[in-house]
Predict the 3D structure of the following.
Amino acid sequence: MNIQDAEKRLSELRSKIEKANREYYDLDSPSLEDDEYDALMRELRGIESEFPELLTEDSPSQRVGGTAQSTFSKVQHEVQMGSLQDVFSIDEVRAFCDRMFAEGVKEFTVEPKIDGLSVSLEYHNGELVIGSTRGDGFVGEDITPNLKTIRTVPLSLTEKLPLLEVRGEVYMPKKSFAELCELQEKNGEPLPKNPRNAAAGSLRQKDSKITAQRKLDIFCFNIQRIEGKQFSTHSESLEYIEKAGFRIIPDVIVCHTADEIIDRINEIGQMRTSLPFDIDGAVIKVNDLSLRNEIGATTKVPKWAVAFKYPPEEKETTLREIEINVGRTGALTPVAVFDPVGLAGTTVSRAILHNQDYITEKDIRVGDTIVVRKAGDIIPEVVRSAKHADNSEPFFIPEICPVCGAKAVRDEDEAVIRCQNIDCPAQLLRSIEHFASRPAMNIDGLGEAVVEQLVNADLVHTVADLYTLSLQDLTALERFGTRSAEKLLDAVEGSKKNEPDRLIFALGIRGIGQRAAKLLCEKFGSVEAIMSASEEEIASIDGFGKVLAKSVFTAMREPHRIALIERLRELGLNMTYSEKKVSDKLAGLTFVLTGTLPTLKRDEAKKMIEDRGGKCSGSVSKKTSYVLAGEEAGSKLDKANELGIAVISEEEFLKMINEEGET
């Protein structure tokens, strides 16, 4: 390869690796498999080694892959959070050992390499003050509230050192990952690719309550900074932080020879599938901390450590069929059915193919020889098509629901194709739960378990059937007494009086939330008028665009929806809107709500704004008029301050709407 070809290839490699880094570190949605990424990085380093004059400081080989996200405030790392040099063969491990022996090294530690998200935990006088992501190694993201939801993160330490900064790896246990996949599949939501992506996405949630639900865990593996203590070895420092209350990286072994290290690597590899968490390698480190300082580091990685990466277990098999399952939200999910193969200790014969884009990108066809593996050693996945069958044809998800025969449509903003029939049996449970939910028809007592009972008992086939239930129907069900049955019937009957904007929202029209439903009713005054409105009339509503208008227009002309609305009318549901605006005092103003208000619930404040002609938005922009902030206001408050948007308290807000004597 001459220097011109090398320069051209380096440009291609750097571009691909930068794209992959952003997908992996920042978007938690990688398109490259780990081994594909590793191959690109090895080729990059090989060319840079052959042509050192082409090595640049901004090369991906010289930097950690992530960047600090604007969603969270930035944290400057006092000690760089670098990555590790990867090695892929035993020969490379021996070469590393030989280099270290030449430096006078006598001891190493070998430990499993947890596949998660690297974080820093900083304690002042024994109290956790800030937790952050690695970011680019120099600047990370402040995710303290989310890290506090992890039960194994100590909030307070028994020994109150002036300063202690510990580095750890946040991960999602295999059991939690399986539960999350089951839940998201049940809800028709995209499945996380693997436990590492699921952990990273969970840790970056704006709402820490969501993070708490994901059941994350952490292993700590290094002291970044400490005041008031000194250690001579890495293993000694781990013993200290374990006694201090941290959950340390498991199975750390001290080794003295290359053969001991290789034996330990093989042992960790053998127990890989039986571990309750995902690992992708073994880490070999110099144990002596003073020698580490002498050996030093590059701009990206320490010279005193390497990470041995295990190859993924992959098997070839034949794809016999692609089934289409319909989820509770109407999502059509393709599932690969293939000849059974043994993977990670179990036999598998099915794997979700996610969506049409996934199938098209990998060109997966029925009859193909496919390569399969388990994501996180749990969820089977199709990695690629190894060979097309003779006369095979590209596969396309049908535009007809296989359950009810209704039209299935792909949203412009999603990769998912959905059945449009709200009465489709496959999504009946979800539709009824949404219809009865508090923001919709607010039928108290009609939760998931009761809905399932009603459907299984063949009492409810559409949401309209809720209004024909009798006392006898309900008391015949298990765990339903006369009093509980009467309360549910009262709640169902009471929902008939709701304003029709609740009904419009309850019908589950794509893109129509509570605010949009209210705007429709304010514009047209009745459900009948909405059904008769043209696409242009709907699009003229302030806040509506062509896409939303088309969604409403199309939904209101679907035969099954027309029949459902007519039946609900006959059953006595209110179809005429009577709510009026309190005033136009806030007309033309856009508010963003953040944090916990002292007395008002967020929905109450939102309604007060909308009743006075104002708008509420979920994000801060230059178009925002005011940010209404309460306690624990997060990134929205930071964004408002950055843009110079006025920030008001609940007291100031109430004064604003009452300044003309409103009650």
